[in-house]
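Entry 14. Ran structure prediction on the chain below.
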Amino acid sequence: MSHPVPLPLDDPDASFATSGGTTVRRTVLPSGVRVLSEHVPAASSTSVGYWVGVGSRDEHEEQFGSTHFLEHLLFKGTAERSALDIAVAFDSVGGEHNAATAKEYTCYYARVRDVDVPMAIEVIGDMVTSSVLSTDAFDVERGVILEELAMAADDPADVAGEAFFAATFAGHPLGRPIGGTPETIRRTARSQVLSHYREHYIPNSIVVTAAGAVEHDRLCEQVAAVFGDAPDARPTPRRSALPAAEPVVSRLEVVARPTEQVSIVRGSQGLDLRDERRPVLSVLNAVLGGGMSSRLFQEVRERRGMAYAVSSFAPAYIDNGAFAIYAGCSPDNVAGLLAVIDDECRRMTDTGITESELARAKGQIEGALTLSLEDTDARMTRLGRAELGVGEFTDLETALGRVDRVTADDVLDLARDLLTRPVVTAVVGAVDRAGLTVVAKAG
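Output, structure tokens:
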């Protein structure tokens, strides 16, 4: 397979073989529910996911934090099952089940033996379609979420990350914390979360994916049974690429904390999911801060001993993205560390990367992509993101080919675009803002 496979919403049934010898099938049920499966020969387990194309960026102003709140509540019971019943269903077969809330989607997933797939489809489907969101459970879970937020607030790296996103996407929903804030969670009413549930958790907005020991026709029958009374409907259109965030403005955010180490996140807006340069970005990221052989790791940790942890990362969304560097160091090293980061970014924009670095980065990326697909969870997730994201399935062979075609000149061109954008710096720890201002505006 040399090209991505489009997943049009008006195509009720599709099937194709992947380069790894698996078969992917996709069916749009009359209710608008989309079902995708990847049969993996010799697998004895299956990963199942129910995806809803709603994340924290989709919340109305009075609902901030509702998406994550709802994720918690769906485990608290349905008309037919208590919270204990749900837990026992998976524990009694040695299965795993959980959920994740992101900025653009929510996923409820499980991994079970092949014989237990019907149970997983039924139980998670019951949670997604028929949760009662009881008042008692709502009050209890509010306390749990406040504890979760407090735990995150005690992690300087988490605080720095949230401060970075808030500044990079100022005034835009992408800048909001996924879990809300203690203030928004305290004032959230059950009626607001219930409204969010009824608005978004509808059959034609739901995608069900499964990978491993799965038989597609049987899977479709099981999913159809979950949504048996749903009227016929077309799938909900995919997320639009608008509105995009305003261009980033250079900012320094300092959160004073009496910590032993200072956490730093420094970067800017990046590339969105549709950008054809994302394979180039993966190479740039690998060379600059993507591993122990990266320039930042070698210069900051191995040569100078200025930090224990330093890395770069590049999250992407349908209409925007970010590229940033994270590091943790002692307060005395902050200014020097920021200067080294800037020097390495300037070196990248001045001279690009060497052919040996290019080859090493390609090997790193291609190996990681290949190894990740040994896991049925990763395959299940790939299906869900393909369906809800850009609407096309990218095979491993296609992905590897895109990376292999990246040149050193491509990386240099992208570096001169990406690494010269206005810089946002978030610093959390025992630091003096005045001493950082000049350094933080450099580059």
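The first helix runs from residue 66 to 73. Will compare against last week's run tomorrow.
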